[in-house]
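INPUT
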Amino acid sequence: MIWFDRLFPVFMVVHPLFFAIFVKTKQTAAEPTELQRLMRRMFVATGFALFLHIGVQMALEATHPERDLMRAAWPTLISTLGCILIWSLFAAPAMAAKNAAWGNDSVGESPLTGTSADATMRSASLKPRHLSDPISARAWGLGWALFGACALVTIWSIAAGAPALLLLGLGWWVGMAVFGAKQNLMEAEPRDQSGSKAVDESYRSLRAFRSWSFYWLGLVGTVAFTFTAAMVLLWPGTSGMIGAILGTSLGCAGATFGVVASFRRVRINELLLEARQNQPS
Amino acid sequence: MLTVRLDSPVPLVDQIASGIRRAIASGEFEVDDALPTVRQLAGDLGINLNTVARAYRSLEAAGLVITRRGRGTVVAALRSRHQGSGEEVRDALDQRLREVLVDARLAGLGVTEARAMAKAGIDKLWTREKQT
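OUTPUT
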């Protein structure tokens, strides 16, 4: 798989550039000077990250000309952490500044904070959410049964020579999915005084979407981990690549779900602003 | 729907407790219905967890709600809400009602205005009963 490690440096160039392009293409309603400052900061940070990444790749090329997957993977991992910083410190504030509806805490890096943190009049629904899980008990039962079966197959694969790390990965993945699905019910849902039906329905729909996203990510990930563990034994030459493709696909699916949820929160915030403008003070 | 005002002179704990009392009184909650968790309400209102927890404790002390394992805080049965005999409860309520009316008079409200206010409050609380 000599060609495969070539993909990592390319991916790392595309990754930070994606943030810059995404923010640039969003329509704006911000003060030009403040926005210019934030955008400039983001572009400088992106340029710096690309410079660092290309520098590291060139230095490695000169000092370690032999092709090695791990050699490509480690700088990529470090660059990925750098991309998280670019997103949270530069891209998200610039994006929030571009549109008033995006300028709230439910977009970006703190979705669990209430969107009405600055309002003096705050409203909340008195309907308990902890007892209204969108995922039925039957679906949870099916999920846990599948996890049990997959864990047994993975344990068998490990006993036959597959890396034990896969079982840890499987446990972590399922734990993350279950935690996400449950935590999702407690995400802050600020309301307007009149209890707008449209806002209520949008929150209910977002909750269901997020819970089921976590559920399916957990389920498909469980099968993917088990499949990868079995592939190590059945087809060792390409198991790494298959694992990487499955992992990347799950990551992309997770990111897509997250972006869709963020767009829905933006819509809810717009509805809330609308409803609050119509309510008596 | 529970609404609180951060700029109100009434403490947040009291605003939350009286909002839930109103919801129970107006029939929004049946006996054994669960209230939102402390974390949910604090998150939605964007206030401290301890503030909501204190409001819940005051409702529990008044016998309006109880904590059930696995369900959280639920609305208590009617009998546990009464502190004393039926006559004692009526006397206590009568006393409080008089105090409210005195406050209304001292605030300069006219009889028509006070009557309208009382009627609006009664209509709001007993709406559900009227409908059924």
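end of record. The radius of gyration of chain A is 22 Å.
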